[in-house]
Each structure stands twice: as structure tokens, then as C-alpha cells.
User: Which sequence fits this backbone?
């Protein structure tokens, strides 16, 4: 009789998750599940964050199937009994501060950890995008899965295209933001977001909002956004951000939309080569277009 091989994985909180055998029934936060799906791992359940509602945010869900994977809830509405009722042998989420498990209330996380291994991978400030990808790849590898070799080739090509676009002639001014509503927006601080930091490392000129409160975001009026004169706006496409149709009544938003190229930006995109290659190609095309090349 073949013996099971014990499984363990050290996460980015410094916690060691241990199981008697390799986990196969995995419940994940949406972003983590979309990432693992790109590596060939199919979750058996999904959950959202306090920003999410009773249905999954399709932007965060990446290429996860729309049917067949139950959505168990979000924020305070996610009950430990609901998660445990799906009989998981592993729960996976992300962490922004190296301590809190994003999407899980602290009490919920404690109750779950008494019954099932929990893993959180860092996606917050100070993490390089390549490191984030490598950590998810390491987790997927421990689960017996991995991205196809073609994904690495695609990413190399996308990074080359981005560097070429950013380095060829005048550099357009790029602003990343999340629309709060007709009156204001949250401007992303590029250093706080691994994907934005990587754009900057590849030569893209990202605008920094004014210093002030907020480690990840700075609050601004649309008049202040317009005054920054961005050539490209990376606009948050998650469900919790205000959609363009809710902003059209504002003159300053209309001025921004008329003068800048709008590119969808998902701050919680899957942390996979395939997803990052797609984003880099989109930004490279916008940079070329804004520069008239």
C-alpha cells in the first residue's frame, strides 16, 4: 500500500502550513483562486473581501469558470461553518501587511486555522511583481501544478514590448486611479503596488500623487486629477470602483476622458505570467498610441 507524502508550505506571514498529504480541496480568495487557476489548480470554493458582495467580482476572478465553483461569501458575511462545510484541506488568500489574511475576518481566520491549514501570500508594498509571481508558482508547484512554458515566453515578449514603447521617444504621463464617484478619485501611489512599480522599472512615467495620508491611495477631486494632465489613465475596473457611466456628469472627468487614453487596471489581477503579459501589452499599446507612434 502506497503511503501518503506529508505536505508543508511556509507562507508570507512566516507561518508553516502542514498537512498529512498534498491538499486537493482548496478554498481561496478570488485573486488567489484566479492565480492558481492559471497554474492549473481548480479551487473547490471562493470567497471575496469586505469590498465584495453576494456575487463574485468577475474582474478579480480572472479566467476562473463562471459555473461549477461555489462562491461562499465575503467579509463579515463569510462564516467559518460555510467554509468548513465545503470540506477544504487548504485555504489560500493574500496579505498586504505580512500579518492579516485579506478577505478573512480575524475571528474567522482563527476559527478556520484550528481545523484546516491556511496560507497567505504577500502582494503588498515592498514586494516585487516577480517575487509575487514566484511565490504563487512555488505554492502551485507544491500542489503538483504549474504554468505552461509558453507563459514565460509570452511574459518575456510583453516586457520587451513595454520597454521598447516606454523608451522610444517622449514618455506619456501615466496616472493610476480608482474612481470613487462623480466628486473624487483615489490616486494610486505607484510604490505601493507591485505591478505599477514594475511599469516604472520598465520606463513608464507614472505620476505620484501629492504626499499625505494614505499609504496606497491619495484622495483627490476630479479637478485635481485634470490638473495633473495625464496622457494615460489606468482606471480601476473592479466592481467596487465607480464605472465611467457614473462619472459622465462631471466636467472635470469629461476633460480627463477627452484628453487621456483610458486603460483598464485591475489592482487585484491574477499573479500569473499570463495575466501580467496581457497587462503589459495593453499598457505598451497605450504608450505607443499616446506618443503617436
Assistant:
Amino acid at each position: 500500500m502506497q503511503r501518503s507524502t506529508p505536505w508543508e508550505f511556509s507562507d508570507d506571514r512566516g507561518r508553516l502550513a502542514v498537512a498529512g498529504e498534498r491538499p486537493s480541496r482548496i478554498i481561496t480568495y478570488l485573486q488567489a483562486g484566479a492565480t492558481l487557476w492559471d497554474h492549473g489548480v481548480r479551487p473547490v470554493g471562493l470567497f471575496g473581501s469586505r469590498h465584495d458582495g453576494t456575487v463574485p467580482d468577475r474582474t478579480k476572478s480572472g479566467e476562473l469558470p463562471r459555473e461549477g465553483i461555489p462562491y461562499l461569501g465575503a467579509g463579515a458575511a463569510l462564516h467559518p461553518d460555510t467554509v468548513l462545510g465545503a470540506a477544504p484541506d487548504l485555504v489560500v488568500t493574500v496579505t498586504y501587511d505580512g500579518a492579516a489574511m485579506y478577505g478573512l475576518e480575524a475571528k474567522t481566520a482563527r476559527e478556520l486555522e484550528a481545523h484546516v491549514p491556511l496560507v497567505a501570500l504577500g502582494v503588498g508594498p515592498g514586494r516585487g511583481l516577480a517575487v509575487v509571481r514566484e511565490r504563487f508558482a512555488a505554492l502551485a508547484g507544491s500542489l503538483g501544478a504549474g504554468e505552461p512554458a509558453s507563459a514565460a515566453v509570452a511574459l518575456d515578449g510583453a516586457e520587451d514590448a513595454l520597454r521598447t514603447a516606454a523608451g522610444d521617444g517622449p514618455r506619456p504621463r501615466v496616472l493610476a486611479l480608482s474612481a470613487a464617484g462623480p466628486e473624487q478619485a483615489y490616486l494610486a501611489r505607484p510604490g505601493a503596488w507591485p505591478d505599477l512599480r514594475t511599469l516604472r522599472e520598465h520606463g513608464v512615467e507614472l505620476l505620484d500623487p501629492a504626499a499625505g495620508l494614505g499609504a496606497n491611495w491619495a484622495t483627490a477631486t476630479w479637478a485635481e486629477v485634470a490638473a495633473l494632465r495625464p496622457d494615460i489613465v489606468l482606471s480601476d475596473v473592479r466592481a467596487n470602483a465607480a464605472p465611467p457611466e457614473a462619472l459622465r456628469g462631471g466636467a472635470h472627468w469629461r476633460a480627463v476622458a477627452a484628453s487621456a487614453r483610458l486603460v483598464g487596471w485591475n489592482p487585484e489581477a491574477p499573479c500569473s505570467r499570463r495575466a501580467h503579459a496581457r497587462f503589459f501589452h495593453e499598457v505598451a499599446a497605450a504608450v505607443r498610441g499616446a506618443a503617436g507612434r
